[in-house]
Amino acid sequence: MKNYFKILFLLTSIIGQSQVNSKWKGYFSFNAIKDISMGSQSVFAGTENAYFTKNTLTGIEKTTTTVEGLSGENITQIHYSKAYNKTILGHANGLIIVINEVDGSMLNVVDIINKGSIPPNKKRINHFCEYNGKIYISTDFGISVFNLRTSQFGDTYYIGPNGSNIEIFQTTVLNDVIYAVANGYGILRASVINPFIVDFSQWTMVSNDNWSAVEKLGDKIIATNLNSGLYYLNGNTPVLIRSLPQLTNDVRAVDNKLILTSQNYITILDDLFNQTLQINNMPNSTATFICTTIINNQIYIGTKENGIFMTNFNNPTTFKNFTPPGPVRNKVFGLSSFRTGFWMVYGDHSGYYNPYPLDTFPITKYNSDTNLYKSTAFADIFSAKSITKNLVNPINENQVFFGSSYSGLLKVENDAPTTIYNASNSTLTTIPGQVPDDIRVNALALDNEGNLWVTNAIAPIGLHSLKNNGQWQAYNLSCATGQRFSSYGTIAVDKNGTKWIATNNNGVVAFNEKYNNRCLAIIEGEGEGNLPSIDARAVAVDQKNKLWIGTTKGLRIVNSVDSFLSQNAIESTSIIILEDNLAQELMFNQFITDIVVDGANNKWISTAGAGVFYISADGQKTYAIFTKENSPLPNNTVIDLEINKYTGEVFMATESGLVSFKGNATAGEDNLQNVIVYPNPVRPGFTGNVAITGLTDKANVKITDIESNLVFEAISQGGTVIWDTTNFRKRKVASGVYMLHLSTSDGLETEVKKVMIVR
């Protein structure tokens, strides 16, 4: 197939509209600092795949992510040019993005990426040096030159032996002479005004030691070597200034001060090489130092895992975090939403469900009303390791359960961890022969009676239930061959109380304790279930009671969950679509990671490597394929999907960050008591749609003007109706108050709302 699906409308149009209408939102972490730069009053910080600026006087900050147009690629360097008011981002793959800070426009510079003669793993951007309107770019193959005024690339200097590629760590320019630290080839220099500088023979070696960085301080060239020595150049002779406590991560000169940053030390020297300050710890923090700068006597410290800290140069005793709010890290492994926010977890496991090496991340709650992130530390969650799943109780949103791939099941109530369930207080068991606390809970689901169902991976009994009365019960999945070695994907509970469980080696296992512990397996092979792989990762029951199954090799459906009650074998089928008038299997051979169903019964399907697919209720239409190439999705490997049933917001947790798409489909409510119309009023200049949410499914919506003339009518699919503020002739309605007459599908309940439109 040329494409996996026939797109029904132009995706580029979707993305453009999405950004204008603020359909996309990013929930990025800014904690992993890669590099920082400075303006006269602002700090510019590059993180994993985003950047932020913050005014040091006003505190006003601005974040820029894939939602604003960044690539999502790994950032390695950032440089702010005061002379041109531009920010330059360098990436591990050689991409350079130039941002005009006046209007926010971005230029993707792909010259290095497109250098076919350079291996893809040798295009990393290591350092930026600005001099006389040019940026000298240190890369893994040499030095490239970028003109800030014209935004065009100039020459590239291949300065290894005989013009070969060599890795350049850093450059600096003093009196029109450029100095470059070359990995394994010492410090090289040449005149930047030499018209033949592109010729490798014009470069001379200053010193052949193993150097790590070079910088200018006043009229001197400073260098550090891989033996943690700090030197200055006296002609061509390196002169030792001092030995440093550790190998440096960053060396820079600011305001006649030399700042040396290593993993645990920040050393600041004056222009006579006298030490004026050394920082080797921050209270209540074990952060790893990455880089440091100084603005107006304030020190800004970039760290590997905790963002930026600020302290005063003259009194460095208190440290204030300077980082925008966000998740603890970008790799969000699981999330579960509630009416005004969501919980997220960061633990992970391999594609084979191996959680080692175990992690000790906190859990985080985000509240959209306040835009606040609240994390509960590892020590306060009973030291539960590698938490990979979570589930908000929809009946009681103050109760949340968390599945650990090592420590069992954690329960949180009213934001406070209350219980950790393990082998001592539940039916959950450890892996036989393993350490006594290795209890792996892979999946969580609640049934209609409020009973919690969890899987217990690589254990003799794979399915357990925490009843609504607080009692535990274990269930043997008798139909699952080799249950002892199973790990599990997701669980879906249908209207009959049947649990559909995705497994890594038994396909999908269906179980219902109310029918004499009936157990059936859907596996590979005709007559056995017809799955494309026995490694199933996701299951979902839709509003038509169809079961959707995602495996590592494609998609299948079971046309009715009732088949479990009446048949001794369940056969799944593929979805066949037409592509270029040829019959094709929907999502053939795709590694599916999750499936969720929105309020209109449409399906959102995430994959490991191909992004997110948004398809119609029956799978015959493809509304969109969201990838990092055509949307703000930062990575095409999507770990988890979640839909907020109250708002329609679709969350996509990827390897490189969390984003959401504001969908229009919400779940239908039980009544019309929670209907919301927004925006209200509709103000001049607004070009979007009016949303009526909180409806019952198939509710009738009629909109009239103040004189009772009907201008719009629709039946809700799920809990939302969208009105583009036009009448039946598709003309924009005039200013005025409009009445919304709402009724349930049976007509037994009615409601009236108003919306004001101002043109």
Automatic annotation (TrEMBL):
InterPro entries: PorZ_N, Quinoprotein_ADH-like_sf, Secre_tail, WD40/YVTN_repeat-like_dom_sf. It comes from the Bacteria. The keyword Membrane does not apply. Signal peptide: none annotated. Pfam families: PorZ_N_b_propeller. Keywords: Signal. The keyword Metal-binding does not apply. Residues 43-204 form the PorZ N-terminal beta-propeller domain. SUPFAM superfamilies: NHL repeat, Quinoprotein alcohol dehydrogenase-like. Gene3D superfamilies: YVTN repeat-like/Quinoprotein amine dehydrogenase. This is T9SS type A sorting domain-containing protein. It comes from Flavobacterium amnicola.
